[in-house]
Amino acid sequence: MTTRIVVMPLAELVGFVNEWGSLPRALDQRPPSDDSVRTTLADELHPVFAASDPAERARLVTALLDRTRVRPELATHDGVLTEEWTVEDPAEKERAAAALALRHHLAEHPGRIGVCADDQCADVYVDASPAGRRRFCCLTCQNRARAAAFRRRNRAATG
Ligand SMILES: [Zn+2]
What is the distance in A from the centroid of ligand 1 to the CA of 136? Predict the structure, then answer.
């Protein structure tokens, strides 16, 4: 018996890492998670977003795929042939769903993921902006970082 994998939508993947990751929770001053399975996976996914080197990203995603032993299959549903991904171990279902999503996205859009540049936030994001220069997870962080930079400049000018 194998478990069929439904590739995780990217928005769901980002939400998962930000909800359960140790670093996003700590910087957001939320209590540590009590779901160790989800937090373990989120903490495996966060470094993929944090890595600046494409080779490091490739290595991390490949290691995740290896661990799940996800494999391609050809299946039939009511006589119709379909491509499928499956795992033997149902416990690897979420990891495989996330790793496949990252593999696909990074192959199409290398570099278009990241971790928020605000120093009070470690949330991850997928960059869907036309220019591909996104640096913050959300407008709140972008505005906070801009205000902090403005205060620093003012202090430097008057002090
Ligand atoms: Zn942020």
Answer: 5
